[in-house]
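Subject: for your reference before the review

Hello V.,

The reviewers asked for a structural picture of the protein, and I figured it would be easier to keep everything in one thread rather than splitting it across files. Below is the amino acid sequence we used in the manuscript, unchanged from the supplementary table.
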Amino acid sequence: MKKDSLIKGTLILAAAALIARFLGIFQRVPLDHILTENGGLYFAVANNVYLTLLVVATGGLPSAISKMVSERYALGREHEAKRVYQAALLFGVITGVILTIALYFAAPYYAVHIAKTPGAEVAIRAVAPTLLIFPIIAMMRGYFQGRQFMMAGGMSQIVEQILRVIVGVALAYYVVSIDWGEKWGAAAASFGNVIGGVGALLVMLYYAAKLRRGDLADRPSVDIEAVKAAAKIPFRSIYREIFTMSIPIVITAMTVQIIYTFDSSLFVRLTESYYGYHDALLVLRDLSFKAQTVAGIPPILAIALSTSIIPVISSAYSLRNMAEVERQTSLVMRIVLFTGVPAALTLAAASYSVTGLIFTGPRGYGIVAALTAGTIFQITMMTSNSILFGLGKARIPMMNTFVGIGLKILCSYALAPIYGVYGVIVATSVCFVVMTWMNIEAIRREVKFTVLGSRWPSYLVTIVVSVAAGWITEAGIRHLLGSLPDKLTYLISAVAAGAVIGVLYLFLLVLLRVVTMEDAKSFPGPLRKLFVLLLKALGRTQARKERH
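And here is what came back from the structure prediction:
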């Protein structure tokens, strides 16, 4: 079947992730009204511990499988790639069974003694069966990504989220309406993950059959000797290669989820002296239920790029095509810079309206703004991790992760008792900044790449001016439209702030020559056309000025 290019594959995954993220936010909106404050907290705690275990089980394996499969296909060893796929599926089944049983029986201890949120154990147990399904899905996604066929993962993600939202919200509403209480309401919402997982697995099975038919059409004859040779490769040697590669990736991929789970598990302990027990629970809900939800939006493109870039760089690097490696590295870093940074700062600038619009009110908007702004460094950290994975240097980001998480823990214990939740958020940003810097230095030792060069000052001016204008617009419109219903005011001011930032950002990128014609030609279709048009218009204007 036809491969997806880096840009096309990234767009597919980014679109799917964006839809999935907004569906996830859409789920939080009705749940914020359906569940009590304790119910929402139970749901968030269950979701965090589930996601952490899911990353433990699958975080590095899809990337490792993707790399192994792409390298073997590049070298014409497709039957070995399929043997890798078989071994991965078996591991997914075994891991899923073990983790499901472990989470189910450990739920009461975790909820009561670690997270100090008694009542969350029912929601944790409700989400446990999802771990039976998602390790298998993760292995399939890794194989498809190695084949540079991103549509399967994208569509399964969308179906998963649609079912998760519909079933989770409907069940939570029903359980609360019959007065089963907040614990069971949170459990019902969590159970939506299980139904979403079933839907995602069915989608992946459909695409697996489609990919198999495409392979048969492309190569109807089978090389029996190659099949026999691949079948002789023992699973233990495949697992040795997978784990050698994936353990560093697992540890690195867990960074964000470990940080979020660390915060939700120990937040009350760290800040109880600052807020008091009950107020600490309220702030934790704002952090875990609101801020972490909104902060998940800016990294979407970086996640998609990180997934797409590994097989592309790995394939080029295995053939020692360093010119292509350098080109793809520079391209992916520029795309992340031009898109992720303004997305994060736009949400931070309009955080009052965004929080008020999505949730029951704007309470906690400062926490949302601080955590979302810090995702700038999360984005660069994730992308640089993936570049190093593609270069076969997985141990470097793993060691950098240990350093970053160590700093996060130390800074949290030092700052949280003094500054509360903002000390926790600053500690998170310190972790991401240090990891990004160390990753970039490691990449430069392998690949000569340039992101902006001498254009950095112009880019910083573009960001500062655009975001400041958006923040003033948001605050001003909220003040002018104070007589309107709150939700309508929040909607108008958030949209207006986003529009001002977006238009001014694009204009200044061109006016200050941050984006060049060469950059524009590497962008996706619609964006490429827009920037080429603006650059040509600027060129004609400059030419007229010079003539006069």
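For the response letter, the relevant points are probably these. The radius of gyration is 24 Å. The chain is about 85% helix and 0% strand.

Happy to draft the paragraph if you're swamped.

O.
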